[in-house]
Design brief:
flat; 11 helices; about 15% strand; about 300 residues; 5-stranded parallel beta sheet; 4-stranded parallel beta sheet; alpha/beta
């Protein structure tokens, strides 16, 4: 007889972070104050359910500001945008509400400051991710992307006397440190940020998965495939020897993933609503789980202010 699930173990913290809460609230407040439509450049956060819900409320998601009527309102996504995108918004006389996560904005400020001091900059991140494009787009030149250790040896930087690094905020802490170590081995005078660019929420959720991985037989991560931090949670669990799967919601649950597993761990990326987690809990309960246990974890009380005009 196949063993049924005995226990569901919930990671703490999980799900929405302060930057995601703020970004969604900006769109909802703009819709309430000005009415539909409200234009949003790129997905406000990387979660299909969130985007679908806001679209139904009247948000129009676009990738190019030329799609926005002259003088209209536009919201910049939580991932941040390049300097050229902001200049384009000015050219089109758009009223901009900035939903960029303040922790991403911190990295933008850092990049501009380093460049002003004459530094070349290495960015650790994933090619094509909007946060990476926005951060690298703060400068016209002098910033170089590496995705992993193997690319460090192939870096061609004309000026290395003054060299610094920054990173995407949603990376794996362990992977990022490996790249930093490789950079320091090649460039001993490399300068790093005073505090890690990887955000508190990413770190807390990865720490929670590390703790959970020691106590479960499989990890289920609620989050969209486009979500960097959700993908990193799956990778963290796998790196700690536990099979892990990323799914949008309970409908994505493959029964074979939990077949024969006594303890099922569940977490969620920083852009995944808690309602999706609870839906997955109910689906796993249907497989026979009789108890749900919440692990201890970091408490998060951070809240970021809204832009002027939406307070």
């Amino acid at each position: 007889m196949t063993k049924v699930v005995d226990e569901i173990v919930l990671a703490e913290p999980r799900g929405f972070c302060a930057g995601v809460d703020r970004a969604i609230e900006i769109v909802e407040r703009a819709l309430a104050k000005f009415g539909a439509p409200v234009y949003v450049r790129h997905e406000i956060v990387h979660n299909d359910h969130v985007v679908r819900d806001l679209r139904e409320k009247g948000a129009i998601f676009i990738e190019d500001l030329d799609e926005v009527p002259l003088g209209a309102r536009v919201i910049m996504s939580a991932h941040g945008v390049s300097r050229k995108v902001r200049e384009h918004a000015v050219e089109r006389d758009l009223e901009v509400f900035d939903a960029t996560c303040p922790l991403v904005t911190k990295v933008h400020v850092e990049v501009r400051k380093l460049a002003a001091e004459g530094y070349s900059i290495v960015m650790i991140g994933h090619s094509g991710h909007p946060e990476v494009e926005g951060t690298m787009g703060q400068l016209d030149s002098g910033i170089y992307l590496v995705e992993d250790e193997s690319q460090v040896a192939r870096l061609e930087i004309p000026q290395t006397d003054k060299l610094a690094y920054v990173s995407q905020t949603t990376l794996s802490m362990d992977d990022t440190q490996s790249v930093v170590n490789a950079l320091k081995a090649r460039f001993p005078h490399l300068r790093g940020p005073k505090f890690s660019d990887i955000c508190y929420a990413t770190q807390n959720r990865q720490d929670a998965v590390k703790l959970m991985s020691r106590q479960v037989d499989v990890v289920l991560v609620v989050g969209s495939r486009s979500s960097s931090n959700s993908n990193r949670l799956r990778e963290v669990a796998e790196r700690h020897g536990v099979p892990a799967y990323l799914l949008d919601d309970a409908l994505g649950l493959d029964p074979s993933w939990i077949e024969g597993k006594s303890r099922v761990g569940i977490t969620a990326g920083a852009s995944a609503p808690e309602a999706l987690v609870q839906g997955l809990v109910e689906a796993v309960k249907a497989a026979g789980a009789s108890s749900v246990r919440r692990l201890p974890g970091a408490e998060e009380h951070i809240r970021f202010p809204l832009p002027k005009g939406l307070n």
